[in-house]
Write a structure and sequence with these properties.
By secondary structure, the protein is α+β, with helices and mostly antiparallel strands. The protein contains seven helices and 23 strands. Among the domains are: 85 residues, no CATH class; 98 residues, Immunoglobulins (Immunoglobulin-like), CATH 2.60.40.10. The strands form nine sheets. Strands 15, 16, 17, 19 and 20 form a five-stranded antiparallel β-sheet that branches.
């Protein structure tokens, strides 16, 4: 007679606001007043639990250290974030203020700040190349395009006015016709005189320079803007302004001052990169050391038994040298089964598994091969990226 199967986990139906405490396996209901707290306390065992409702479900990956973090709900619309791994400032791609634009040279998505959204060209901080800003917003928009209804009304008014003029022209007297001819001749003479006058407006690239436009592009304005960009921490804006200064005003007395500000901005960028690299090395070394310590202090314990219904039932525990059982959250499970001839046995169906606070219970369907199985071993990787390997254990019948 077969022995009864042991350590079978029962399935639980959880409510919408229910979670399971990983310490005591108790079912907890998250009330609305603590739903936005990052950590909550179990009412049964008083353990601190990470609240799954605290996060927004959106992730941000640090391009510097590769840290992948889930955004809390109250940071969901923040444009600038700080990486908890290396301390690097990050741009949140989920923010409503995020203006992404793909660089055509290195195909990297870069954020276009509102301060330079009107610029024709932008600078890629990754490959150090300029390219056309396809997100550019024109400051002077045609009023007719914004108000098409008003434009149609003006056309109708103009058409009516023209009709009235034509009707009135039928009532002209000979005297009025003479006056009209005289005015026409006078206007023609004025036009001829203006044509002989040569304007003194300065030209650039065969185009007249309007005073307002020249004032807008003056080196003093560029100097003021690049100082503001340096204070606000926008090195890409400094790059664009310096290129404009170098192209339009290379002989200006302010050129050297602008170049000093630009060099300072580039030095800050380089220092930040070097600082982030050092933090990343320190972080990776710490993670490697912690992972080794965890692997050395804990190991997998496996109990396996085959049943007449063709099911191989396995109980897997995470224990330490003192015999204490620890919670095991399996992100991936790999197992290997051998028969008495050292040949691998494959399952004939889908395995079922259940995770409790003291272990993982796995049922593997083997069919008629259940009593041919000799041994089994497991490799389990947790959600923290720590991998545990068990020894090959004998299967009981």
């Amino acid at each position: 007679m077969d022995e009864p199967k042991k350590n079978k986990a029962k399935s639980l139906k959880l409510g919408e606001n229910d979670i399971i405490c990983p310490s005591c396996n108790a079912v907890l209901t998250i009330s609305e007043d603590i739903k936005n707290d990052e950590l909550i306390q179990c009412s049964k065992c008083a353990a601190a639990i990470q609240n799954p409702f605290f996060y927004s479900g959106k992730f941000v990956i640090c391009s510097n250290c590769g840290n992948n973090a889930e955004l809390p709900k109250y940071f969901e619309n923040e444009l600038m974030l700080n990486c908890g791994g290396c301390g690097q400032d990050l741009i949140n791609p989920h923010s409503k203020d995020y203006n992404p634009l793909k660089c055509p040279h290195c195909f990297m998505d870069i954020h276009i700040p509102e301060e330079i959204i009107h610029a024709r060209y932008v600078f890629c901080p990754n490959c150090q190349n300029d390219f056309k800003n396809t997100l550019r917003k024109k400051k002077n928009v045609d009023i007719e395009n914004q108000n098409p209804i008003k434009h149609i009304q003006e056309q109708k008014t103009s058409s009516n006015t023209t009709t009235d003029i034509i009707n009135e022209s039928k009532e002209f007297t000979n005297k009025q016709i003479t006056w009209s001819i005289g005015i026409t001749i006078f206007i023609a003479i004025i036009i001829l005189l203006i044509g002989k006058y040569k304007a003194t407006v300065p030209y650039r690239d065969n185009k007249p320079i309007i005073e307002k436009e020249e004032k807008k592009r003056s080196p003093e304005i560029i100097y003021t803007e690049i100082k503001k960009a340096m204070i606000d921490g926008f090195p890409e804006t400094c790059k664009i302004l310096f290129n404009k200064m170098q192209t339009d005003y290379p002989n200006s007395i302010l050129f050297d001052s602008v170049k000093i500000i630009y060099d300072s901005a580039m030095n800050i960028v380089q220092l930040k990169k070097e600082e982030a690299q050092e933090k990343r090395k320190l972080y990776e070394a710490t993670q490697t050391k912690e992972t080794k310590q965890v692997k050395q202090s804990k190991f997998l314990t496996v109990f396996a038994q085959a049943y007449s219904d063709g099911i191989l039932s396995c109980n897997v525990y995470l224990a330490d040298k003192s015999g204490n059982i620890h919670y095991l959250d399996a992100n991936s499970i790999i197992y290997t089964i051998y028969d008495f001839n050292n040949n691998r046995i494959k399952p004939i169906g889908k395995i079922s598994k259940s995770i409790t606070s003291d272990g993982i219970y796995i049922d593997i369907p083997l069919g008629t091969n259940a009593f041919k199985a000799k041994s089994i071993s497991f490799v389990i990787t947790t959600s923290q990226g720590v991998t545990y390997k068990s020894n090959s254990v004998s299967i009981d019948y």
